[in-house]
Structures are given as C-alpha cells and as structure tokens.
Please model this.
Amino acid sequence: MHTVQDGDPTAASRIRETAIDLFGRDGFDVGLRTIADEAGVSLGLIRHHFGAKHQLRAACDEHVLQLIDNLQAERVEVAEPGKHLLEQLAGLDELAPLVQYMVRALTAGGPTARAFLDRIVASTETHLDHGVETGTIKPSVDARARARYLAVTGLGGMLLDYALSDEDDAVTAWRAYTERVTLPTLELYTQGLLTDREMLDTYLLYLKDPPGGDPDVPGP
Model:
C-alpha cells in the first residue's frame, strides 16, 4: 500500500476518497483507524486535515453532493446531450463509489440524511430551471414540486433496487441498476406516458388555486 507523507498535498483528498469508499461499502461505523490504515496515513494526519470523525463525514457529504451537483449541471448545459450521455455511460465505474456512499447516507436516516436529500432536491430544481430557460426542458406549473418528485422518486427507486440487490461489488451493482433504468427513464422523460392532458387538466381544475396561479400549463 502506498504511504502518504505528511507533506503530500494529495493527503487530504486521498483520506476523503478512502473514507467515501469505506463508508459506502461498510457503513458509517467504520473507525478512523481503519480509514487511516486503508489510506496509508497516520491517524494524526486525518485529525490534522479533518478533525473528528463527524467532521470527516461532513467533508465526504459535501464532496459527494458537489460532484452530484456538477453532474446535473453538465446534463443541462452540454451542446450535444446524446454524445454526453454516451460519455457518462462509458465512465459509469467511476460513479459507483459515490452512488454507494449516497445510498448509505440516505438509508442512515436522521437530520444528516434529510439535509442530504434537501441539497439534492435544491440542485435538481436549479438545473431544471436552467433547462427551462435554455429550452431543453418543458416548464412546470410547480417547478419546486416537480424537482422534489423527480429527486425523491429517482432516489427512492435506487435505494429499493440496492436494498434488493444480491451484488456486493459497488461497480457491479451500479452497472446492473443503470442497465435496468436508463431506457425506461429516458423514454418517460422524452416521450411521456399519457397520450392526452385530460387527467392533468382535471386535477388542475380540482385544485381551484393551482401553484403559479395559472392552470394553463404549456402543452407538448
């Protein structure tokens, strides 16, 4: 195992990446000593860069959330979304540890999990709004509710899939999941499901005062 010296500028990132891998694989009961041994650093170096274990966990949360935010930004800002999708599919293995960590963070529950979810929902709303502005995503009568629905249903499906999976390896589990959901997800997002607006229009009338104050949302 490579040993990181105290003066190595990559020490902090190596510790963080190792912690993300171990927390995702084995849960948040993993101790700092185990992380130090796996990263090839001293326990003191971890405390120097991150302090206590909960502070290292917070740094891992922030790093994973930032990477998720970056990925969402890329999806709505690229000039050639089809080409970008293929590039993302080719790099699936790199995302596996992040997804496994996210699954652990959300299933752990508590305030940290709620904050984690709130960040993902907020990020989703921001990038959906950007897609609406650039014309790649249809407007919504309630943008915030749509963002939350997409985030919660997407994450909920992923959590259930992982809970029922027999795969122990993060990369194998992630690849199996994406193979199952990519086609139906893209189909639903691109073509929709219902062939007319009757159910939506009926419900908007039922609300009497729909979000945004205008029940006449743009059609296809």
The chain has two domains: 1-51, 60-213. The longest helix spans residues 53-77. Confidence is low (pLDDT under 50) at residues 1-7.
